[in-house]
Amino acid sequence: MADETKGPATAEAPAATEGHSQRPPSRGPRPGxxxxxxxxxxxxxxxxxxxxKFCVEKIENINYKDVRLLAQFVAESGKIVPRRLTGVxxxxxxxxxxxxxxxxxxxxxxxxxxxL
Amino acid sequence: xxxxxxxxxxxxxxxxxxxxxKLISTLETAVSSSGGTMKSVEKMGKRRLAxxxxxxxxxxxxxxxxxxxxxxxxxxxRRLRVTEPVLKFISVRIDEEQKRLAxxxxxxxxxxxxxxxxxxxxxxxxxxxxxxx
Lengths: 116, 133
Prior knowledge:
The structure holds two protein chains of two kinds.
Chain A: H1 2-18, H2 24-27, H3 53-56, H4 67-71, H5 83-86, H6 90-105
Chain B: E1 3-11, H1 17-33, E2 37-53, E3 56-68, H2 70-82, E4 86-93, H3 95-116, H4 122-132
Antiparallel strand pairs in B: 1-3, 1-4, 2-3
């Protein structure tokens, strides 16, 4: 089973770069974005697959006191960086955002603008 | 119903050490008088605030870990609110999070032991391997 699902997934990437006639409709809703190869005149580059920092490093304890960790996921403006930019998985982003919000309330992180 | 809470508060940076100790000890007596326990007191020292609070840029952070009922926390919050040099405070319930972390840790330890002892545990071990990658 696992091999069957793996096969098409790996086959899909080269097919997209070749510009198969049947591929484009299916490419539209694909959320990953993928490399924008065909559009940029066949230039080949791979966008590295983003992985969740918390899953990779096995950080389960997302605490509001750990400013140094949380600050990595807060933009210069003070906003929480969206998942699509950081690659954090949904369960961890949920914990992360609530931790950031607590940290903001106790003046560890700014609501807006960079820390003084 | 005993729960564990973290109570973090910020006092103004020019507050003398003795006054801060006095404030903490009054809180401690309030905790013990209503049947709770003060598990730890940590003075995190002077820190830069992320934004100005009552025209202060710095503050002395104090972190208390308290075990007790919700009514006790309510009382502590009331005390902090009326204490003038306290700039900000927050109380966070942590027992459920701790329980969750302990559970995860137990699972990880168990998995580590099983993978360490019988290395070629073929079909069941194969399930864990892709998740790790």
